[in-house]
Structures are given as C-alpha cells and as structure tokens.
Amino acid sequence: MRLKILSIPVLLVLVLTSCGGGGDKITRAETFDLEAGYASLAHNGDTTSVSLSGTIVMNGTSTPFAGSGTLAINPASTTTFNGLTALSQLVTIDGTVTASGQSASYASSVTDYYGIGTTTLLGETSSNEYDVAPTPLAYPAMVEGGSNGLLGTLNRYTDGTMGVSLGTAQISYQTMTPVDPGSPMPVLVTVKIYDTQDTLIETDVTTYSLTSANDMAFVAATAENASGTLTVSRN
C-alpha cells in the first residue's frame, strides 16, 4: 500500500470461516502470519503489469478514463527515517491513461519505511508529503479469515521538518476467508486520510493475497477523493 500510492493524479485533470461438519467434528480456521507476509513483501518486492481505470471530475462532470501500466514494489533497502535506521521500500506505478480520446502519462511514487528486523511501519514519504507514525504500526502475526483491526495513525506533514501539518491517516486491516482450504487469504488494508479539521478527504483500499508460506502479493487497489476515483488491478 501501501499508503496513498493511488492518490488521484493531477495529470488526469490535464487530460480532461470455514464450514463445520456434522456431529462432534470441529473444523479449525486456517491461520496466516500477516507480519511475516509483510516482511516477505518488503524483502522480495513485487512487480506486475496493471490495468488502470476510474473517473476524473472536471467542471462538475465525471469523466471516465482507462489505461495500463506497471506497478513496482521494490525490495527494501537500509536507510534512515526520522532519525532512525530503517528499511525503505519504493512503490511506483507508471503507465498511460486515456480520457475522452486524449492520452496522458500516469505516474505515482511513494516510499514506505519499516523498522529494522520488525517490519513495523514507521512512516511514508512522497514528493509533497512526509508522514510519521507517533508509535510504529505493528502488523499482527497469526490471523484468520474474518479478522480486522486498527493498525494505527500517521501524522501527515508537508516535509521532513514536520513544521506544517496536513492532518492524519488512519490505517486498518481486514482479512477474508480463503475460497478453498489451502488457497491464499485476501488481505485488505484501508487508509482513511483526514485534513487538519478531521474531515475525511480520501479513502484508499489495497488488496493483497497471503499464502500459508507467507508469500504476499499485490492484487488490486482503489482510491476515492473529491477529484474522482482510481482502480488499479493486477493483470
């Protein structure tokens, strides 16, 4: 998520649990290690072609767009963040979208920062934002389908000086029961972005698949704000 990696691009404006048996039989829900899954994704990364679609609001009119591109979740590397040694993971989407017969490049880039050896989320940066977790956000270890919880909150600033507040970002997760026993478990990470008046201004939802072997991969993501909507889907 990856947080806010799907913010509606300014460029577009330019274009225009399981089932129980009978008797005394008890079926245990399969558990997954979400913390280990994020650690694996941080270490290995994930790159895939994606489809882009959504709407952009111009002069009060919602205009659909569609396109394609590449999402790259790069393997994390050691760096520093907010005075701490950390792992940094660059997440990018590069592609092209078309609206009303006109095409434009689409680009999105954000860097997530994790604690060394723990994969707790420390914060995130982009070209015009610097987000910091007052307390590192820890992903739960053993979860099963139907689990959910609040991971925590990031404080949003314009830059690394943290002198100008932009508001906050609240992060939560939800897991879904696998379709079949042994299948990957869907994991949804929701980021609700608030301004300094505590008004919700954007909601981002990223879906991953997590296997019992702790392999985690991007599936899809959506973003919605006053400018429009965006959906990114793995091909």
Short précis:
This protein has 235 residues and is mainly beta. The protein has helices at 11-15, 34-44, and strands at residues 31-33, 46-58, 61-73, 77-81, 84-99, 102-115, 121-126, 129-137, 142-144, 148-157, 165-175, 185-194, 200-210, 216-225, 228-234.
Key phrases:
single chain; 235 residues; mainly beta; twelve-stranded antiparallel beta barrel; two-stranded antiparallel sheet; 2 helices; 15 strands
Can you walk through the features of this model?
The chain has 235 residues and is mainly beta. It has one domain. It is built from two helices and 15 strands. The chain has helices at 11-15, 34-44; strands at 31-33, 46-58, 61-73, 77-81, 84-99, 102-115, 121-126, 129-137, 142-144, 148-157, 165-175, 185-194, 200-210, 216-225, 228-234. The chain has a twelve-stranded antiparallel beta barrel. A two-stranded antiparallel ribbon has the order 1-9. A hairpin with a 2-residue loop joins strand 5 and strand 6 (102-115). The radius of gyration is 19 Å and the shape is globular. The two termini are 17 Å apart. 33% of the residues are buried.
